[in-house]
Amino acid sequence: MILLTGATGKTGSETAKALAKRGVKARALVRDAAKAQVLQAAGLELAVGDVADTDSVRRALAGVERLLILLPNSQRQVELEQQLVDLAKAAGVRHVVKMSSMEAVASASTPIPQGHWAVEEYIRASGMAWTMVKPNFFMQNFLASAKSIKENHSFSLPMGDGRTAMADARDIGAVAAEVLAGRGHEGRSYEITGPELLSFHDVAARFSEVLGARIAYVPADPAAYLGILKRVLNEWHANAVSQLFREIAEGPAPHVTDTFRRLLGREPIPLAQFIRDHIAAFR
After folding, report:
1. Segment 166-186, tens digit of pLDDT
2. If you ran DSSP here, which 8-state letter would residue 159 be given?
3. Is the pTM of this model over 0.90?
4. Is 45 helix (H, G, I), strand (E, B) or coil?
5. CA–CA dist 261, 259 (Å, integer)
6. C-alpha atoms less than 13 angstroms from C-alpha of 183 in its C-beta half-sphere
7. What percentage of residues in the chain have a pLDDT greater than 70?
8. How many CB atoms are located within 10 Å of the residue 113 CB?
9. CA distances from 33 to 1, 18, 46, 69, 283 (A)
10. Among 37, 51, 103, 122, which residue has the fewest nearby CB atoms (within 10 Å)?
11. How confident is the model at residue 35 (pLDDT cuts 50, 70, 90)?
12. What's the whole-number average pLDDT of the chain?
């Protein structure tokens, strides 16, 4: 049995779909069964409970051999993920798969990558088999700019001239499913990217080509954008996201990897295809 956390999120739901397509038996720990009906309809078993509640987690872990740790970024993320590791080990879980990030390295200097790295190290020291899935920027992040792209023919982010090798959440979910259901992935860290290294000006050009209208990228002032984030996120989360965006704007560009192609035997989804697949949101 496989247990998924984060199965109602953008990446977790894609992992669940990919496992269901493979006919793999899996269980999802969810807080609200009514909001997870699509997972149940796809064939997943639901365990209702909060990841912060140890009793809920223990019940969900019954009979589980493999665990996907995929929690939203938060000030408690390290604490909650390490607690999951401890509970999994006590329950006899053999293999833990951690959704991390490419930025999570020993020298990470911002809160979100530092947290991911701390949990990676905790898992490696646990004695259980492990695999780290480390994506980069998500194409699905542009859905938050859909209204502006549709109405103003522009989008604004504080990325400056930074570049990223963004990946589609469907591909990241497919990798997670392969790692959970396949063989030979123990002790591996998989960096997942899309097929292109793109600046956000390049992103605007892809939107323009697919939509048939000029879409502009307007670099946002980082301080002003932080103010916008604080309207929708708590202070810790807003500051952490802002620092992550600054790394994209100022840091070295990541490398494009062939990991997806090697694991899945097909090409990763390019940004233009992502836009076509979600064209109703942008046009």
Report:
1. 999 999 999 999 999 999 999
2. -
3. yes
4. strand
5. 5
6. 0
7. 100
8. 22
9. 19, 20, 7, 19, 33
10. 37
11. confident
12. 94
Amino acid symbol at 192: I
Q: Domains in the chain, start-ordered, CATH in brackets?
A: 2-135+169-193+255-269 (3.40.50.720)
Nearest residue to 74 via CA among 33, 103, 112: 112
Q: Are 251 and 162 in contact (CB under 8 A)?
A: yes
Is there a contact between 181 and 22 (Cβ–Cβ < 8 Å)?
Answer: yes
Q: How many residues in total does the chain contain? A: 283
With beta carbons less than 8 A apart as the criterion, state whether 218 and 159 touch.
no
Quickly count: other Cβ atoms within 10 Å of residue 200's Cβ.
25
238-278 pLDDT, tens per residue? 999 999 899 888 888 789 999 999 999 999 999 999 999 99
Can you read off the two tokens belonging to residue 28? 């999802």
Q: How far apart are CA 167 and CA 171, in angstroms?
A: 7
Tokens 């076509």 appear where?
A: 276
The amino acid occupying position 162 is G
Contacts 24+ apart (CB under 8 A), 225-234: 225/156, 225/157, 225/158, 234/75
Please give the structure tokens belonging to residue 71.
């929690």
